[in-house]
Amino acid sequence: MPVAVLAIVHDRPVASEGWEPEAENWIAWARRPGHDAYHLYIDRFLDLVPGAGANTLEVGCGEGRVARSLVSHGHRVTGIDASPTLIRAARELDRESTYLVADAAELPFPDRSFELVVAYNSLMDIRRMPRAVQEAARVLTVAGRFCLCVTHPMADAGEFTSRAGDATFEIRGSYLEDRVPPYAGQLVERGGLRMTFDSLRYSLEEYAQALFGAGFVIEALREPALPAGEVARDPPKQRWQRIPNFLMLRAAKA
């Protein structure tokens, strides 16, 4: 049976003014090979995604790297994002797919249009997160699946005290009450690139309530550790084998 894919908001930051202010910085950040953790975790996520299908829709495609990963697995993709700059960048590297400017919380598609919804490192960047989840449910067929990855709510609630492999992980505020992760609004400089990340932090319960409220049931859950090969290359990163950096879920309509 053909499978269509809908992804809600790509894995890129949301500045308080919208997507545009950091768009050029994110394009450079996301497209430098090995610059962030995307290549270390994307295959674990794709393991949750049902097989390739004829019509694939990614909402919030950013500069397009998730869409390109989906295309490489046989999906035909239409990508949607709120940022015109990111949409233009996605088109530059992927002439096979269609990219449009639109809002993830107000999807411009009829009910029951797609068979698969994918959200990769994105729901924590949506201020109307429950509404976006409801929209995902609306456009899914009865037998549809919703596959998502977010930065892990626990990881976003605190920080390691150092970069050592055995560093202590501290939650200084409240996991249940604080909505803003420690890194939000901070300028990050790495390898000559600069990026300001401005996400929100939802608790596991808030994600679950959004899914249940939209009529989903969770059928698979993953908290992948950092791959052993990356730890062998950079031993201090062993700290990310003790605390999961990401939470991955697959949900079905009840």
Detailed description of the structure:
By secondary structure, this protein is of the alpha/beta class. The chain is built from 7 helices and 12 strands. It has helices at residues 23-31, 38-46, 65-72, 84-93, 129-139, 204-213, 228-233; strands at 5-8, 56-59, 77-81, 98-101, 114-120, 140-151, 159-160, 169-170, 186-190, 193-197, 216-222, 246-253. It has an 8-stranded mixed beta sheet with strand order 4-3-2-1-5-6-12-11, with helices on both faces. Strand 9 and strand 10 form a beta hairpin.
Indicate the CATH architecture: 3-Layer(aba) Sandwich
Largest sheet, strands/sense/barrel: 8 strands, mixed
- Computed over alpha carbons, the radius of gyration is 17 Å
Number of strands: 12
Q: What is the overall shape?
A: globular
Low-confidence residue ranges: 1-17
What is the helix content?
Answer: 10-25%
Query: How much of the polypeptide forms β-strand, as a percent range?
Result: 25-35%
Essential attributes:
Rossmann fold, single chain, two-stranded antiparallel sheet, 7 helices, 254 residues
